[in-house]
Every structure is written in structure tokens, then in C-alpha cells.
Design a protein that fits this description.
The chain is built from 3 helices and 2 strands, in the order E-H-E-H-H. By secondary structure, it is mainly alpha-helical. A two-stranded parallel ribbon has the order 1-2. Helix 1 links the parallel strand 1 (11-15) and strand 2 (49-53). The longest helix is centred in the last third of the chain and has 23 residues, at 64-86. It is elongated, with a radius of gyration of 17 Å. 8% of the residues are buried.
């Protein structure tokens, strides 16, 4: 169990599937599909981040390969943004271009 003040590493993923998306069976199916898509696509070397996925009702009828591809694209975008924000040279570059 982490101690108070300790930083978690890696990506933590959560899902918000409200009752407006269907009954319990449909909502649980959405979460199972998303969990599996995340398991298949989560990069091992991902920097620490909290990700919340809020699906739409179309997830129930979407082909699973499409779901996996969408989740993969989300992780690619997250990795790019986190690496860019952690890169000190990128911060200097943004500051310099902002002055011109």
C-alpha cells in the first residue's frame, strides 16, 4: 500500500458508465469491453497519468477491433502530450517562440 505523499507510477484507467447508457447488463458489458481493450493496448512504458474513459452507447454495437483501435489512439495521444509537457527543452522552445 502506498504511503501518503508517494507518487503512483504508470497509467491508471477508470470508466464512467452512467445509467443513461442502458441497464446493468449493458453497462457491465461496456466496462468489460473497455477493460479488455485497455489491457491489450496499454503501453508498458507509459508515464504516470490518470485516464477516465466515458463511452457512448454505440460501444455496444461497435466492432471490438474498432474499440481496440480507438483506445490505442487515445494512449498514443496521451503519451505524446505527457512527454511534451515533461520535456524541459519543449518548455524553453515554447517560451522563446511566444516572445517573437
Amino acid at each position: 500500500m502506498p504511503t501518503a505523499g508517494a507518487k503512483a507510477t504508470g497509467v491508471r484507467v477508470g470508466f464512467t458508465v452512467g445509467r443513461a447508457l442502458g441497464g446493468a447488463v449493458q453497462r457491465n458489458r461496456m466496462k468489460r469491453r473497455l477493460r479488455e481493450a485497455v489491457r491489450l493496448t496499454m503501453p508498458a512504458d507509459a508515464p504516470g497519468a490518470d485516464v477516465v474513459i466515458n463511452p457512448k452507447k454505440g460501444l455496444l454495437i461497435a466492432d471490438f477491433d474498432l474499440v481496440v483501435n480507438e483506445v490505442r489512439q487515445v494512449f498514443v495521444v496521451i503519451q505524446k502530450k505527457l512527454r511534451k509537457s515533461q520535456d524541459p527543452s519543449a518548455a524553453v522552445e515554447r517560451t522563446e517562440t511566444g516572445r517573437q
